[in-house]
């Protein structure tokens, strides 16, 4: 009697459907439906059983009415699943239909029955009831939904195959089962086969599939508020104006202005552009760009120390764009993470542009890091690195849910390369990507004289996100900040229940990405 599928539709002139909890007065309508749906399986519950179900767990008994008449329903209870395990029978786990096994402190929502009036076939009422169960499961913070599903289509194939083979063909869409196919389409997966689950179910030969839907938002235990990670993260980006500066102090004053502004809105992150300290290049010999950039590198440690101080003082994590680092006779382009707990970390740019290599002699790093922060794992890709899809995929596989891309470009063409690739990274990795660069110009500063930027934050492309997958963006070539809230729970939802599931649907039997550098 478990999990009846949706029948074929007949047209109705007008409908007024309403989803609600069942009440005792609904029994006659419910009995009428069950007698039609289960004529060979003892028909409807008794009035006493139905009353017990309502009284024991009123929230779990859901129906859809049409113009005042119940036309579909779902019976549910909560169980301590460890008490029953996988080898239970329908009679045992439902308490003989009286739900005496219902445990408000249990961990699993158990699906007892779903039934739809045959007159309402193909109106997808069963899907509405499944969705209502899922919402109830989330609201009650239960591990998931478990049900013993009938396989009535097996009666046509029992002479030619085992139930295991039948279920496998149903999963592969080679065979349609009116119940199992519907459950699979609603994100349930088969855990195992149960024998003698419902002896009166002759079509299924008393076999049932133990199916389960996992609540991806389940919290095993309440965490202390002070240590709980935020579900919504506030990210600020700085579209930085390149202006002549005569000292590190002047640069830090400008940095602090933006840090103060973003912290005033309780931002969790402040992202600065690649080579945001470029204005200090004017202090060095412009006839030798390689010498000038190495001169600029002498300020990097001081700037990082100051930005780390600001991160602590203003209680905000700062991604300090990138700056040149000269060590062991090699020049690198390095981004710094200054956490608000006072710790710092760094990510070398791995892919060096032809311009950086020929003008300055920059070398690429050999380590890709996922950074732990107080809101979860993040990754940093410096400009050109975002144009190589392997790197974001590796970061994503290691748990990074927000990617920060500080860039420096001089033309709109260069900007569009970064932007389009960042958008692709957000979609294919089901993550958020924040990008920012610099604007304005620096007369008489060789190789970093003009800038183009339009900062933005991108999301995956699905219904839970903006229709164009752009969370927000700035006015092009204008000094300003961008502040957005990013819901991390939506990333979990899309990965498991999205219209498409890029991460889950990878063909790892055909291809994979392997990191060969230093960890």
Automatic annotation (TrEMBL):
Q: Which UniProt keywords apply?
A: Acyltransferase, Lipoprotein, Transferase
SUPFAM superfamilies according to UniProt: Acyl-CoA N-acyltransferases (Nat), Carbon-nitrogen hydrolase
What protein name applies here? Nitrilase/cyanide hydratase and apolipoprotein N-acyltransferase
GO MF annotations in UniProt: acyltransferase activity, transferring groups other than amino-acyl groups
Q: Which InterPro entries match?
A: Acyl_CoA_acyltransferase, C-N_Hydrolase, C-N_Hydrolase_sf, GNAT_dom
Quote the Pfam families the UniProt record gives.
Acetyltransf_1, CN_hydrolase
What are the N-acetyltransferase domain coordinates in residue numbering? Answer: 17-174
Where does the CN hydrolase domain start and stop, copy by copy? 233-488
């Amino acid at each position: 009697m478990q999990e009846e599928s949706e029948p074929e539709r007949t047209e109705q002139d007008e409908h007024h459907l309403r989803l609600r909890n069942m009440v005792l007065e609904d029994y006659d309508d419910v009995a009428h439906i069950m007698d039609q749906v289960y004529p060979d399986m003892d028909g409807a519950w008794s009035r006493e059983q139905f009353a017990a179900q309502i009284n024991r767990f009123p929230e779990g008994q859901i129906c859809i009415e049409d113009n005042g008449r119940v036309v579909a329903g779902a019976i549910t209870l909560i169980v301590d699943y460890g008490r029953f395990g996988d080898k239970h029978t329908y009679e045992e786990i439902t308490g003989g239909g009286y739900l005496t096994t219902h445990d408000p402190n249990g961990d699993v929502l158990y699906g007892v029955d779903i039934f739809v009036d045959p007159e309402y076939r193909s109106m997808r009422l069963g899907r509405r009831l499944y969705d209502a169960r899922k919402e109830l499961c989330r609201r009650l913070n239960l591990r998931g939904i478990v049900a013993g599903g009938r396989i009535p289509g097996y009666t046509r194939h029992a002479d030619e195959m085992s139930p295991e083979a039948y279920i496998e063909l149903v999963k592969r869409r080679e065979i349609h089962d009116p119940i199992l196919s519907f459950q699979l389409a609603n994100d349930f997966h088969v855990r195992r086969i149960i024998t003698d689950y419902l002896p009166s179910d002759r079509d299924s030969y008393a076999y049932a599939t133990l199916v389960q839907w996992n609540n991806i938002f389940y919290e095993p235990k309440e965490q202390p508020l002070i240590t709980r990670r935020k579900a919504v993260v506030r990210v600020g980006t700085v579209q930085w104006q390149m202006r002549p500066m005569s000292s590190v102090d002047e640069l830090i004053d400008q940095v602090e202005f933006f840090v103060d502004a973003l912290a005033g809105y309780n931002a969790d992150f402040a992202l600065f552009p690649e080579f945001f300290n470029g204005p200090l290049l004017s202090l060095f010999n412009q006839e030798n760009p390689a010498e000038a950039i190495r001169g600029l590198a002498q300020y990097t440690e001081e700037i990082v120390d100051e930005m780390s101080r600001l991160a602590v003082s203003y209680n905000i994590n700062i991604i300090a764009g990138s700056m040149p680092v000269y060590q062991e006779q090699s020049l690198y382009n390095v981004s710094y993470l200054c956490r608000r707990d006072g710790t710092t970390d760094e990510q070398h740019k791995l892919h060096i542009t032809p311009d950086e290599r020929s003008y300055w002699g920059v070398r690429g790093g050999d380590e890709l890091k996922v950074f732990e922060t107080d809101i979860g794992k993040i990754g940093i890709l410096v400009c050109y690195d975002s144009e190589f899809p392997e790197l974001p995929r590796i970061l994503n596989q290691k748990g990074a849910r927000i990617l920060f891309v500080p860039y420096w470009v001089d033309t709109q063409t260069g900007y569009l390369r970064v932007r389009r690739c960042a958008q692709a990274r957000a979609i294919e990795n089901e993550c958020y990507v924040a990008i920012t660069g610099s604007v304005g110009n620096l007369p008489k500063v060789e190789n970093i004289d003009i800038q183009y930027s339009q900062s933005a934050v991108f999301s995956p492309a699905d219904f839970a996100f903006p229709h164009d997958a752009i969370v927000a963006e700035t006015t092009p070539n204008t000094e300003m900040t961008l502040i957005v809230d990013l819901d991390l729970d939506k990333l979990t939802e899309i990965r498991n229940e999205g219209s498409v599931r890029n991460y889950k649907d990878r063909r790892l039997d055909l291809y994979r990405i392997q990191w060969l550098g230093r960890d």
